[in-house]
Design brief:
This protein has 286 residues and is an alpha/beta fold. It has eleven helices and ten strands. The structure holds adenosine-5'-diphosphate (ADP).
Length: 286
């Protein structure tokens, strides 16, 4: 079932001199299995939106329907169920790793769900594989001895072990080196492809969003100002520039060629794709 967000309004510190409208009538439909990237300047309302989707905040007005369920006014038990379905990975999730061993960290959620030992084991193994941590190598490892990238992926595995259908990621690659970033987004793409998991991700880095997301939306001052397929971003380059969003270098190269009449319409997701598009066109031109 899609996520339907309609006319969402959120106001911080309402009725005080510090009152601040973070979302001002935001609407969006997220289809099953979509990967959506959210951009926007600091303070545009991105984190507020994720927290509303996870039920951590309650809207002042408007509605969110997930799986046909209206989020507002849910009882505690329904909210807990919702959080299993909608997993939220905050920035630097590894700061919340608290178990000594990898297995126990991932097993925590499934055990709390009341699953038997075998089901827990299956969930742990599956989740570790999903984030690219070989269970045979990692299950007994001490969490303290993992690298930054491994810890990040372990924290995400802990979320995946509850088998959510929706994954909300807030700057998931912050502080990771380029290699780890690539690996993380490969894992997340596989998760979307194989499990049909819907992923909504916030990032300041367009290249990160393009590594995973097929649809990009831009927030400005609490409102949705752009909603575009990532393959069609070149068509919105002027609007993106006005919004302060710079195209990636790969997109800029293709954009330049497009403006010189090369007839390329697709916006590349990464340098490899840009290279492929150019080689194809060159082959036709020669
Ligand atoms: P983003 O994630 O895009 O940086 P946020 O959703 O964090 O934006 O914030 C949206 C707006 O709400 C900003 O103007 C921010 O200053 C304000 N805001 C966020 N959290 C609070 C809070 N706890 N109290 C008051 N204002 C807040």
């Amino acid at each position: 079932m899609p996520i339907k967000i309609e006319n969402l309004v959120y106001i911080y510190q309402k009725g005080t001199p510090f009152e601040k409208s973070a979302l001002k009538g935001f609407s969006l439909t997220v289809n099953d299995g979509e990967t959506i990237g959210i951009m926007g300047a600091t303070g545009s309302g991105k984190s507020t939106l994720l927290q509303l989707l996870n039920g951590l905040l309650q809207p002042a007005a408007g509605t969110i329907t997930i799986d046909g369920l209206l989020l507002g006014g849910m009882k505690k038990a329904s909210l807990a169920k919702l959080r299993q379905q909608v997993a939220m990975v905050f920035q630097y999730p590894e700061q919340q790793i608290f178990e000594e061993h990898v297995y126990d960290e991932v097993a925590f959620g499934p055990i709390n769900m009341g699953l038997d030992a075998q089901a827990v084991e299956e969930r742990v193994i599956k989740a570790l594989i999903q984030v690219g941590l070989d269970p045979a190598v990692y299950r007994k490892r001490s969490t303290a001895n993992l690298s930054g990238g491994e810890k990040r992926r372990l924290a995400i595995a802990g979320m995946l072990a509850s088998e959510p259908r929706y994954l909300l990621l807030d700057e998931p690659s912050a502080g990771l080196d380029p290699e780890m970033r690539v690996l993380l987004f490969e894992n997340m793409s596989e998760l979307n492809r194989l499990e049909k998991m819907t992923i909504i991700m916030v990032s300041h880095h367009l290249s990160d969003l393009l590594a995973l997301c097929s649809r990009i939306i831009v927030l400005d001052n609490g409102q949705l100002v752009l909603d575009v397929a990532s393959s069609k971003m070149l068509d919105s380059s002027e609007q993106l520039a006005q919004l302060g969003v710079d195209l990636t270098p790969a997109q800029q190269v293709v954009q330049q060629l497009k403006q010189r009449g090369w007839g390329i319409t697709r916006s590349p997701r990464n340098p490899e794709e840009a290279g492929r598009l150019i080689v194809e066109k060159l082959a036709n031109k020669l």
